[in-house]
Design a protein that fits this description.
Largest sheet: 5 strands, antiparallel
Strand order of the largest sheet: 3-2-1-4-5
Shape: elongated
Mean pLDDT: 84
Number of strands: 5
Strand content: 35-45%
Number of helices: 1
Order of helices and strands: HEEEEE
Distance between the termini: 67 Å
């Protein structure tokens, strides 16, 4: 019985230690810019639910992919830079648009 308690305690300790390491690694790289892609705004729409709508731009990038990003001053044909950044979780990708 006492051996089982030691095994369970050791497993809990290792799990907490592993979760702590993942958390530290995930938050230390947050906001890091991975790449910058040039593109043109193809369309503008307001997305959101409830009483709040947020302006979004549909952007066609130079490698012929489409990205939807929050962009307050949206005008079709505007040249923008799309910053591909790392999100809160290490594998999460966030797309941020800014005027070129």
């Amino acid at each position: 019985m006492n051996v089982n308690r030691v095994k369970v305690s050791w497993m809990v300790f290792c799990t907490v230690l592993l979760l702590g390491a993942v958390t530290v690694l995930s938050t230390s790289e947050r906001g890091e810019t991975l790449t910058i892609i040039k593109g043109d705004i193809q369309g503008c729409e307001y997305l959101g639910g409830g009483g709040e709508s947020i302006p979004h731009a549909t952007i066609k990038t130079e490698n012929d992919t489409y990205v939807t990003a929050i962009f307050p001053s949206c005008r079709v044909g505007t040249k923008v830079n799309v910053l591909v950044t790392r999100g809160m979780l290490y594998f999460n990708t966030v797309y941020v648009a800014e005027k070129a």
